[in-house]
Amino acid sequence: MIEPRHPPPVEASVQPSSLSRRGFIQLAAAGGISLPFRRWWDEFRAIGLTPHARRVTPFLTPDKDFYLVAVEPSFRPGFGPATVGSAWALEIEGLDGRVRKIGYDALRARATRKIVYTFECIGNPVGGQLIGNAEWSVIPLKELLGKAAGVGSVKFNGLDQFFSSVSAARAFDDHAFVALEMNGKPLPGAHGFPARVILPDLYGMKQPRWLQRISLKETAQTDSYWERQGWAGEVPVKTMSRLDPRGTLPAGQAADLTGIAFAGARGISRVEVSLDGGKSWLECELTTPGHAGVWSLWRYRWARPGAGSYSLQVRATDGRGKLQIATRQDSYPDGASGYDTQALSVSSFS
Q1: Helix H or strand E segment including 110
Q2: pLDDT at position 350, please?
Q3: What is the CATH number of domain 22-229?
Protein backbone atom coordinates (compact mmCIF):
# COMPACT_ATOMS: atom_id res chain seq x y z
CA MET A 1 0.00 0.00 0.00
CA ILE A 2 1.53 3.31 -1.04
CA GLU A 3 0.94 7.00 -0.65
CA PRO A 4 0.25 8.35 -4.18
CA ARG A 5 2.04 11.24 -5.81
CA HIS A 6 0.16 11.35 -9.07
CA PRO A 7 -3.24 12.65 -10.23
CA PRO A 8 -6.22 10.29 -10.64
CA PRO A 9 -6.77 8.93 -14.15
CA VAL A 10 -9.34 9.94 -16.74
CA GLU A 11 -12.43 7.74 -16.62
CA ALA A 12 -12.92 5.12 -19.33
CA SER A 13 -15.90 3.04 -20.32
CA VAL A 14 -16.79 -0.45 -19.12
CA GLN A 15 -19.04 -2.97 -20.77
CA PRO A 16 -21.71 -4.87 -18.83
CA SER A 17 -20.82 -8.53 -18.66
CA SER A 18 -23.24 -11.23 -19.76
CA LEU A 19 -21.32 -13.74 -17.66
CA SER A 20 -22.05 -14.80 -14.11
CA ARG A 21 -19.62 -15.07 -11.26
CA ARG A 22 -16.74 -17.07 -12.75
CA GLY A 23 -17.03 -19.93 -10.31
CA PHE A 24 -20.65 -20.49 -11.36
CA ILE A 25 -19.78 -20.67 -15.05
CA GLN A 26 -16.94 -23.13 -14.48
CA LEU A 27 -18.94 -25.33 -12.15
CA ALA A 28 -21.89 -25.35 -14.54
CA ALA A 29 -19.64 -26.33 -17.43
CA ALA A 30 -18.29 -29.18 -15.33
CA GLY A 31 -21.81 -30.41 -14.59
CA GLY A 32 -21.78 -29.54 -10.90
CA ILE A 33 -25.51 -30.18 -10.51
CA SER A 34 -25.21 -31.20 -6.88
CA LEU A 35 -24.76 -27.60 -5.74
CA PRO A 36 -27.72 -26.16 -3.81
CA PHE A 37 -29.94 -24.03 -6.04
CA ARG A 38 -29.59 -21.07 -3.68
CA ARG A 39 -25.84 -20.87 -4.22
CA TRP A 40 -26.22 -21.30 -7.97
CA TRP A 41 -28.64 -18.38 -8.05
CA ASP A 42 -26.44 -16.19 -5.84
CA GLU A 43 -23.43 -16.88 -8.04
CA PHE A 44 -25.40 -16.27 -11.23
CA ARG A 45 -26.44 -12.74 -10.24
CA ALA A 46 -23.20 -11.67 -8.55
CA ILE A 47 -21.31 -10.23 -11.53
CA GLY A 48 -22.24 -6.67 -12.37
CA LEU A 49 -19.50 -5.15 -14.52
CA THR A 50 -16.48 -6.93 -15.97
CA PRO A 51 -14.08 -4.70 -17.92
CA HIS A 52 -12.63 -5.82 -21.22
CA ALA A 53 -8.95 -6.69 -21.24
CA ARG A 54 -6.78 -3.69 -22.12
CA ARG A 55 -3.86 -3.71 -24.52
CA VAL A 56 -1.72 -2.26 -21.71
CA THR A 57 -3.10 -2.20 -18.18
CA PRO A 58 -2.81 1.27 -16.56
CA PHE A 59 -1.46 1.55 -13.03
CA LEU A 60 -4.68 3.14 -11.76
CA THR A 61 -7.98 1.67 -12.87
CA PRO A 62 -10.53 4.31 -13.98
CA ASP A 63 -13.71 4.30 -11.88
CA LYS A 64 -15.98 3.08 -14.67
CA ASP A 65 -13.49 0.35 -15.59
CA PHE A 66 -13.36 -1.11 -12.07
CA TYR A 67 -14.94 -4.56 -11.74
CA LEU A 68 -18.16 -4.96 -9.75
CA VAL A 69 -19.14 -8.16 -7.96
CA ALA A 70 -21.98 -7.95 -5.44
CA VAL A 71 -24.94 -9.96 -4.21
CA GLU A 72 -27.09 -7.35 -5.98
CA PRO A 73 -24.89 -5.55 -8.57
CA SER A 74 -27.75 -3.18 -9.40
CA PHE A 75 -27.93 -1.86 -5.82
CA ARG A 76 -27.39 1.86 -5.36
CA PRO A 77 -28.12 3.88 -2.21
CA GLY A 78 -31.32 5.91 -2.29
CA PHE A 79 -29.40 9.15 -1.82
CA GLY A 80 -26.48 10.93 -3.42
CA PRO A 81 -23.85 13.51 -2.45
CA ALA A 82 -26.48 16.28 -2.25
CA THR A 83 -28.68 14.48 0.29
CA VAL A 84 -26.32 12.10 2.08
CA GLY A 85 -25.89 14.48 5.01
CA SER A 86 -29.51 14.12 6.09
CA ALA A 87 -30.02 10.52 4.95
CA TRP A 88 -27.00 8.63 6.27
CA ALA A 89 -24.52 8.42 9.12
CA LEU A 90 -21.97 5.73 9.88
CA GLU A 91 -23.06 3.72 12.92
CA ILE A 92 -20.45 2.28 15.28
CA GLU A 93 -21.72 -0.20 17.84
CA GLY A 94 -19.54 -0.80 20.89
CA LEU A 95 -19.18 -3.94 22.96
CA ASP A 96 -21.81 -2.58 25.34
CA GLY A 97 -24.36 -2.29 22.53
CA ARG A 98 -24.34 1.49 22.46
CA VAL A 99 -24.34 3.05 19.01
CA ARG A 100 -22.68 6.30 18.08
CA LYS A 101 -23.14 7.97 14.70
CA ILE A 102 -20.71 9.96 12.59
CA GLY A 103 -22.10 12.09 9.76
CA TYR A 104 -20.80 12.10 6.22
CA ASP A 105 -19.34 15.60 6.33
CA ALA A 106 -17.46 14.81 9.53
CA LEU A 107 -16.02 11.68 7.94
CA ARG A 108 -15.02 13.51 4.76
CA ALA A 109 -13.18 16.09 6.84
CA ARG A 110 -11.16 13.30 8.48
CA ALA A 111 -10.41 11.39 5.27
CA THR A 112 -7.25 13.37 4.53
CA ARG A 113 -4.93 10.44 3.90
CA LYS A 114 -4.58 9.05 0.37
CA ILE A 115 -3.44 5.52 -0.39
CA VAL A 116 -3.26 3.25 -3.41
CA TYR A 117 -4.81 -0.18 -2.90
CA THR A 118 -5.72 -3.14 -5.13
CA PHE A 119 -9.00 -5.06 -4.78
CA GLU A 120 -9.27 -8.58 -6.19
CA CYS A 121 -12.39 -10.74 -6.23
CA ILE A 122 -11.97 -14.22 -4.76
CA GLY A 123 -13.78 -15.45 -7.88
CA ASN A 124 -11.15 -13.98 -10.22
CA PRO A 125 -9.98 -16.78 -12.56
CA VAL A 126 -6.42 -17.21 -13.82
CA GLY A 127 -5.84 -14.31 -16.22
CA GLY A 128 -9.14 -12.72 -15.19
CA GLN A 129 -10.27 -9.10 -15.07
CA LEU A 130 -11.87 -9.12 -11.59
CA ILE A 131 -9.09 -7.01 -10.10
CA GLY A 132 -8.53 -3.26 -10.00
CA ASN A 133 -6.22 -0.68 -8.48
CA ALA A 134 -7.26 2.81 -7.38
CA GLU A 135 -6.38 5.79 -5.22
CA TRP A 136 -8.52 6.07 -2.08
CA SER A 137 -9.07 8.87 0.45
CA VAL A 138 -9.29 7.12 3.80
CA ILE A 139 -9.56 7.23 7.58
CA PRO A 140 -7.60 4.64 9.59
CA LEU A 141 -10.22 2.22 10.88
CA LYS A 142 -8.74 2.00 14.37
CA GLU A 143 -9.22 5.77 14.77
CA LEU A 144 -12.97 5.20 14.43
CA LEU A 145 -13.15 2.04 16.53
CA GLY A 146 -11.38 3.25 19.64
CA LYS A 147 -9.83 0.77 22.07
CA ALA A 148 -9.25 -2.84 21.03
CA ALA A 149 -9.42 -4.28 24.57
CA GLY A 150 -11.94 -7.12 24.77
CA VAL A 151 -12.70 -7.09 21.05
CA GLY A 152 -12.56 -10.51 19.36
CA SER A 153 -13.89 -9.57 15.93
CA VAL A 154 -15.40 -6.66 14.03
CA LYS A 155 -18.51 -6.95 11.87
CA PHE A 156 -19.42 -4.71 8.93
CA ASN A 157 -22.95 -4.32 7.59
CA GLY A 158 -23.81 -2.65 4.30
CA LEU A 159 -26.90 -0.83 3.12
CA ASP A 160 -27.39 -3.66 0.61
CA GLN A 161 -27.80 -6.18 3.47
CA PHE A 162 -24.33 -7.61 2.82
CA PHE A 163 -22.25 -8.40 5.90
CA SER A 164 -18.77 -9.58 6.78
CA SER A 165 -16.70 -9.89 9.94
CA VAL A 166 -12.96 -10.16 10.46
CA SER A 167 -10.60 -10.71 13.37
CA ALA A 168 -9.86 -7.82 15.69
CA ALA A 169 -6.20 -7.98 14.64
CA ARG A 170 -7.20 -7.40 11.02
CA ALA A 171 -9.61 -4.54 11.80
CA PHE A 172 -7.15 -2.74 14.08
CA ASP A 173 -4.25 -3.18 11.65
CA ASP A 174 -2.39 -0.02 10.60
CA HIS A 175 -3.47 -0.72 7.00
CA ALA A 176 -7.21 -1.08 7.66
CA PHE A 177 -9.31 1.88 6.52
CA VAL A 178 -12.70 3.33 5.76
CA ALA A 179 -12.61 4.90 2.29
CA LEU A 180 -14.68 7.95 1.28
CA GLU A 181 -13.19 8.80 -2.12
CA MET A 182 -11.99 6.86 -5.17
CA ASN A 183 -9.60 8.43 -7.66
CA GLY A 184 -10.11 11.90 -6.22
CA LYS A 185 -13.92 11.94 -6.11
CA PRO A 186 -16.64 10.69 -3.74
CA LEU A 187 -17.10 6.95 -4.14
CA PRO A 188 -19.24 6.12 -7.19
CA GLY A 189 -22.63 4.62 -6.41
CA ALA A 190 -21.49 1.30 -7.86
CA HIS A 191 -18.40 1.16 -5.69
CA GLY A 192 -19.65 1.83 -2.21
CA PHE A 193 -20.91 5.39 -1.80
CA PRO A 194 -20.96 6.77 0.83
CA ALA A 195 -18.23 4.61 2.45
CA ARG A 196 -16.48 1.27 1.99
CA VAL A 197 -14.01 -0.83 3.95
CA ILE A 198 -10.39 -1.54 3.04
CA LEU A 199 -8.76 -4.43 4.91
CA PRO A 200 -5.19 -5.67 4.32
CA ASP A 201 -4.43 -8.84 2.37
CA LEU A 202 -8.01 -10.06 1.88
CA TYR A 203 -10.12 -10.73 -1.18
CA GLY A 204 -12.90 -8.27 -1.97
CA MET A 205 -15.63 -10.54 -0.57
CA LYS A 206 -14.52 -9.64 2.98
CA GLN A 207 -14.51 -5.86 2.42
CA PRO A 208 -18.08 -4.46 2.26
CA ARG A 209 -19.24 -1.46 0.25
CA TRP A 210 -22.17 0.88 1.04
CA LEU A 211 -21.15 0.74 4.68
CA GLN A 212 -23.89 1.29 7.25
CA ARG A 213 -22.71 -0.11 10.59
CA ILE A 214 -19.50 -1.36 12.23
CA SER A 215 -20.01 -3.55 15.30
CA LEU A 216 -17.42 -4.62 17.84
CA LYS A 217 -17.87 -8.22 19.00
CA GLU A 218 -16.44 -10.21 21.89
CA THR A 219 -16.45 -13.46 19.91
CA ALA A 220 -13.43 -14.29 17.78
CA GLN A 221 -15.55 -16.26 15.30
CA THR A 222 -15.93 -14.54 11.92
CA ASP A 223 -18.51 -14.85 9.19
CA SER A 224 -19.67 -13.32 5.91
CA TYR A 225 -22.38 -13.66 3.29
CA TRP A 226 -20.13 -15.47 0.82
CA GLU A 227 -18.69 -17.80 3.46
CA ARG A 228 -22.23 -19.05 3.97
CA GLN A 229 -22.26 -19.92 0.25
CA GLY A 230 -19.19 -22.13 0.70
CA TRP A 231 -16.37 -19.71 -0.11
CA ALA A 232 -13.33 -19.41 2.16
CA GLY A 233 -13.17 -16.77 4.86
CA GLU A 234 -10.27 -14.71 6.14
CA VAL A 235 -7.66 -16.14 3.74
CA PRO A 236 -4.82 -14.06 2.28
CA VAL A 237 -4.83 -13.38 -1.44
CA LYS A 238 -2.75 -15.77 -3.55
CA THR A 239 0.09 -14.52 -5.70
CA MET A 240 -1.17 -13.96 -9.24
CA SER A 241 0.10 -12.58 -12.54
CA ARG A 242 -1.56 -11.75 -15.84
CA LEU A 243 -0.59 -11.12 -19.45
CA ASP A 244 -2.02 -8.18 -21.37
CA PRO A 245 -3.42 -9.31 -24.75
CA ARG A 246 -1.08 -8.97 -27.71
CA GLY A 247 -2.69 -10.69 -30.70
CA THR A 248 -0.35 -10.91 -33.71
CA LEU A 249 3.11 -9.35 -33.86
CA PRO A 250 5.31 -8.64 -36.88
CA ALA A 251 8.56 -10.59 -37.00
CA GLY A 252 11.85 -8.79 -36.45
CA GLN A 253 10.35 -5.72 -34.78
CA ALA A 254 10.87 -5.02 -31.09
CA ALA A 255 7.72 -5.41 -29.00
CA ASP A 256 6.75 -5.21 -25.35
CA LEU A 257 4.97 -7.94 -23.43
CA THR A 258 3.18 -6.38 -20.44
CA GLY A 259 0.83 -7.23 -17.61
CA ILE A 260 0.23 -7.15 -13.86
CA ALA A 261 1.28 -9.15 -10.80
CA PHE A 262 -0.22 -9.06 -7.31
CA ALA A 263 0.54 -10.74 -3.99
CA GLY A 264 -1.43 -8.74 -1.44
CA ALA A 265 0.54 -7.64 1.62
CA ARG A 266 3.61 -9.55 0.45
CA GLY A 267 4.22 -7.36 -2.60
CA ILE A 268 6.00 -8.50 -5.77
CA SER A 269 9.77 -8.97 -6.10
CA ARG A 270 10.07 -10.63 -9.51
CA VAL A 271 8.11 -11.44 -12.68
CA GLU A 272 9.18 -13.83 -15.43
CA VAL A 273 7.72 -14.73 -18.83
CA SER A 274 8.11 -17.84 -20.91
CA LEU A 275 7.89 -17.90 -24.70
CA ASP A 276 7.87 -21.69 -24.94
CA GLY A 277 5.07 -22.85 -22.64
CA GLY A 278 7.16 -22.88 -19.45
CA LYS A 279 10.29 -24.70 -20.67
CA SER A 280 12.46 -21.63 -20.08
CA TRP A 281 11.91 -18.31 -18.30
CA LEU A 282 13.01 -14.72 -18.92
CA GLU A 283 13.14 -12.00 -16.28
CA CYS A 284 10.92 -8.95 -16.72
CA GLU A 285 11.26 -5.35 -15.63
CA LEU A 286 8.95 -4.17 -12.86
CA THR A 287 7.73 -0.82 -14.18
CA THR A 288 6.04 -0.06 -10.84
CA PRO A 289 7.58 -1.15 -7.51
CA GLY A 290 6.30 -4.14 -5.57
CA HIS A 291 4.55 -2.30 -2.73
CA ALA A 292 2.39 -4.15 -0.21
CA GLY A 293 -1.30 -4.18 -1.10
CA VAL A 294 -0.74 -2.82 -4.61
CA TRP A 295 -0.32 -4.61 -7.92
CA SER A 296 2.89 -4.24 -9.91
CA LEU A 297 3.05 -3.58 -13.63
CA TRP A 298 5.73 -5.48 -15.55
CA ARG A 299 7.28 -5.42 -19.03
CA TYR A 300 9.44 -7.70 -21.12
CA ARG A 301 11.23 -6.08 -24.07
CA TRP A 302 11.24 -8.65 -26.87
CA ALA A 303 14.05 -7.41 -29.11
CA ARG A 304 13.61 -9.42 -32.32
CA PRO A 305 10.74 -11.95 -32.23
CA GLY A 306 11.08 -14.57 -34.93
CA ALA A 307 8.16 -15.71 -37.05
CA GLY A 308 6.15 -18.58 -35.60
CA SER A 309 3.66 -19.57 -32.91
CA TYR A 310 4.46 -19.03 -29.24
CA SER A 311 2.90 -20.17 -25.99
CA LEU A 312 3.33 -17.30 -23.55
CA GLN A 313 3.20 -17.81 -19.79
CA VAL A 314 3.85 -15.52 -16.85
CA ARG A 315 4.72 -16.19 -13.22
CA ALA A 316 5.51 -13.96 -10.23
CA THR A 317 7.55 -14.19 -7.05
CA ASP A 318 6.25 -12.39 -3.97
CA GLY A 319 8.22 -10.07 -1.70
CA ARG A 320 9.13 -12.97 0.59
CA GLY A 321 10.75 -14.92 -2.22
CA LYS A 322 7.94 -17.46 -2.73
CA LEU A 323 7.06 -18.39 -6.31
CA GLN A 324 3.47 -18.24 -7.53
CA ILE A 325 1.63 -21.59 -7.40
CA ALA A 326 1.88 -23.35 -10.76
CA THR A 327 -0.90 -25.89 -10.16
CA ARG A 328 -4.07 -24.85 -11.93
CA GLN A 329 -7.03 -24.50 -9.55
CA ASP A 330 -10.47 -22.98 -9.98
CA SER A 331 -11.29 -19.91 -7.90
CA TYR A 332 -13.74 -21.83 -5.70
CA PRO A 333 -13.41 -21.91 -2.71
CA ASP A 334 -10.26 -19.95 -1.77
CA GLY A 335 -8.99 -18.22 -4.91
CA ALA A 336 -7.56 -19.40 -8.23
CA SER A 337 -4.00 -20.50 -8.88
CA GLY A 338 -1.92 -21.33 -11.95
CA TYR A 339 0.02 -19.48 -14.64
CA ASP A 340 -1.78 -17.29 -17.16
CA THR A 341 -1.17 -18.61 -20.68
CA GLN A 342 -1.68 -16.93 -24.05
CA ALA A 343 -1.10 -18.11 -27.61
CA LEU A 344 0.77 -15.60 -29.74
CA SER A 345 1.44 -15.59 -33.47
CA VAL A 346 4.41 -13.71 -34.88
CA SER A 347 3.88 -13.05 -38.56
CA SER A 348 6.61 -12.81 -41.17
CA PHE A 349 4.51 -10.12 -42.88
CA SER A 350 4.57 -6.59 -41.41
Answers
A1: helix 104-110
A2: 53
A3: 3.90.420.10
